[in-house]
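Entry type: protein chain
Record version: 2
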Amino acid sequence: MTANPFGEIGTATYVLLTTFTKDGRPKPTAIWAALDAGELLVWTQAKSWKVKRINNTPRVTLAVCDRAGNNAGPAVEATARVLDDAGTARTRSAIIAKYGLVGRVAVTASSLFRGKSSTVGIAVSPVS
């Protein structure tokens, strides 16, 4: 089993991922995240604003939240990077493994209705 450098955040059902605009304004989003090889993997729409912000500024914070995005714990600093096709496939597999049938339905429906290239994986690593 791989170590979990994120503590409770690494096993939470919902995670508050906060990305930052070019001028430093925080933009929090409640997301699913799955721990894999010491990173939190996030699956999202390829053209989402969070992807654009991560490409501009890899700094993010993470916190435990509920499904509505209400913060339920302290935030930790991290860095994020958008993954290639192989990393995105790894992310889909990790989301399915963690979220079971609901994760499989979400990933499959997205692939069928929007195409696999419409989504992308994001890897989040803790700040050393």
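Comment: The longest helix spans residues 85-114.
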